[in-house]
Design a protein that fits this description.
single chain, mainly alpha, Tetracycline Repressor, domain 2, 9 helices, 64% helix, TetR family transcriptional regulator
């Protein structure tokens, strides 16, 4: 299992990280309170004390997943207010490259949780609420880039990103990860179609993926 934690990680986060690792490695059937205890190196019963029900354990995993995904890009790497669409293309290319090269486990765990949410209405509500901050952020970024229909364009952008990540993480392209330049080209083409030629004039440098430690 590739799960890693940083010094000072709380017991709640340790449990949630172990749950995410189990979901990626063994699937939903492999996620049990006992397995989380063993994976996290905690005394038997620790996970049950923190999350007594399976629903509570799944919610802990969703919450931790959202926090770790939000940390893939630092605030300084997001485009500033008034930045052109080029800044957005750079940031999105960097984020996707990090997901696919450093955080595949998170992607697989997210797919497991998303599918489970289709069968558990109570988890569906929690999963959607946890993801709302990303939709809000992306709507704001599209607005700042000049989109006349930020919500619709954000949906198109998410659909493109999700399709590419699925294909490269677990689908037919899993053996080949596009490099940052290729991803930036794809985002530039997509954003130019939505925002117009002038919004992404020129070809700025691709952000280098050498400044971000693995979570």
């Amino acid at each position: 299992m590739a799960e890693r934690t940083t010094p000072g990680t709380s017991r709640a986060d340790l449990i949630a990280d172990a749950a995410l690792g189990l979901l990626a490695e063994r699937g939903m059937r492999g996620l049990t309170h006992r397995a989380v205890d063993e994976t996290a190196g905690l005394p038997q019963g620790s996970t049950s004390n923190h999350a007594r029900t399976r629903q509570a354990l799944l919610e802990a995993a969703v919450r931790r997943l959202a926090d770790r995904e939000a940390a893939v890009l630092t605030p300084g790497e997001l485009p500033a207010a008034g930045d052109s669409g080029e800044g957005l293309a750079d940031a999105l290319a960097l984020a996707l490259h990090r997901y696919l090269t450093r955080h595949r486990e998170l992607l697989v765990a997210r797919y497991e949780l998303a599918l489970e949410a289709t069968r558990r209405p109570e988890l569906r509500a929690y999963y959607d609420a946890a993801g709302s901050r990303f939709r809000t952020m992306l709507n704001a970024l599209m607005t700042a880039a000049g989109s006349p229909e930020p919500e619709r364009h954000a949906l198109s952008l998410v659909a493109w990103c999700e399709g590419l990540m699925f294909a490269c993480a677990v689908g037919s392209y899993h053996a080949a990860v596009p490099d940052p330049a290729e991803l930036r080209t794809g985002f530039t083409e997509l954003l130019r179609g939505m925002l117009g030629e002038n919004a992404l004039a020129g070809g700025g440098p691709v952000l280098q993926d050498d400044r971000h430690d693995e979570d």
